[in-house]
Amino acid sequence: MKQPNILLIMTDQLRGDCLGYAGHPDVKTPYLDSLAAKGVSFDRAYSACPSCIAARAALHTGMEQSHHGRVGYEDNVPWNYTHTLASELAGAGYYTECVGKMHVHPLRNYLGFHHVDLHDGYLHAARYASVPYRESQFVADDYFYWLKQELGVTADVTDTGIDCNSYLARPWMHEEKYHPTNWVTDRSLDFLRRRDPRKPFFLMASYLRPHPPFDAPQYYFDLYKDKDLRPPFVGDWEDTEELMKNGRIFDSKTGPLDEELKKQAQIGYYACITHLDHQIGRLIMALIEQELYDDTLILFTSDHGEELCDHHMFRKSRPYEGSCRIPFLIAAGKNVLPDMKSGSVCHAVVELRDVMPTLLLAAGGAIPDTVDGFNLLPLGANPSGSVRPWLHGEHSYGEHSNHWIVTETDKYIWHSQSGKEQYFLLSEDPHELHDRIHDKSCRERIHKLRSHLATCLKDRPEGMSDGVHLIPGRPYPPTLPNATAE
């Protein structure tokens, strides 16, 4: 069988529920809805370590977090993995290209891609005055380099006055064609123009949005500014102490205290999503016009979600659905997966580590023995199937450090510094409004999930488990010793 072209559409900080096809009452995503109608969407997809670097390590290596060694967020740690998605596809005969975000170290580490058009967004660690010239984001990042050529040496994405982790929102200040979302599509289209037509291609279109800054063009803000938006989810277990303390800090880990600022954050976030959707639409239309769509496999996902003021929280790294549940769908042209049950929804628990084996097997390649993920292609023909009974997730996050076990129906959370536990019956309570950790009827189930977590952590270097009991308060650095192993 002819090797399919592969398009991996990667987004940044996109919640699993903020899509039209996922049933969101406010967000409009017509092009992604169309892809879902032609493919299989996974409504129990997760990022097991939900922040940019660790999530991308899982994507590029197919490993679970204790094996790739990144269990939190830490910049400037070298990436030295032997087997990566791009290198394996290149070995299988593919011409490989990434456009947009990589977020690896060093910045120009290609991870096996033949070519990278790089834009990592605003990276504090690559912009400080002490960073050597060639390692500066203004030099190494292709979008920033291009933007300064187009608009002058002072042009920057920070000209809006919005930080890259802020809940503040305002429209893009330049012409739309200069927006980083448009740039990723423009450069992806240019790749399709200059690709080697004798080879199948692997294109990773890696968009920065809807990660803050929430700065979509004015047109997209106007779509939402007068709508009565669904408010954030707040349950019966939240503590408002941190919100009261930090709710006026623009880049805090809580949402804002001000109700109007909460709505503005929603407007900006949704605006970025619809803008992103329209730019993805340009890419899909190009595949059709160039008569490539019928021979192309498309996988769409994100690195993690965004709390967006749910439970008085903002950003990611938390164990809750807004942070760790991600969109995930597979669609294909008629010559690629003829047995796919179009428009179906799969409830299997899947994770970013599953991307690599899925795409490698679609390409006819071999899966390295370092890969922990599963091939999801059989679920296209049988969406009622499953690949794992449960998934272990985690994130080193200071006092908010956490571990969790999630299944198709429920979730157990252990806060590793305090030892606090939570339990949510997701099948009845998908927005985690009611913590049932003290519900006697759930005691046996909680014990079982706790035991799974104790087993997962047994041989870890932090000493958080003896295999039977969980041990709180242990040091929990964001990077394990094996992260930089050759």
TrEMBL record:
Provide the family line: Belongs to the sulfatase family.
Q: How is this protein annotated for GO cellular component?
A: cytoplasm
Annotated GO MF terms? arylsulfatase activity; metal ion binding
Q: What is the lineage of its organism?
A: Bacteria, Bacillati, Bacillota, Clostridia, Lachnospirales
What NCBIfam families does this protein map onto? PRK13759.1
Q: Which residues form the signal peptide?
A: none
Q: Which CDD domains match?
A: sulfatase_like (cd16022)
Enzyme Commission number(s): 3.1.6.1
Q: Which UniProt keywords apply?
A: Hydrolase, Metal-binding
Q: Which InterPro entries match?
A: Alkaline_phosphatase_core_sf, Sulfatase_CS, Sulfatase_N
Superkingdom of this protein's organism: Bacteria
Q: What PANTHER family does the record tag this protein with?
A: IDURONATE 2-SULFATASE (PTHR45953:SF1)
Q: Which residues form the Sulfatase N-terminal domain?
A: 4-364
Name the PROSITE patterns on file: SULFATASE_2
Which Pfam family is one of those matched by this entry? Answer: Sulfatase
Where is the region Disordered? 466-486
Report what the protein is called: Arylsulfatase
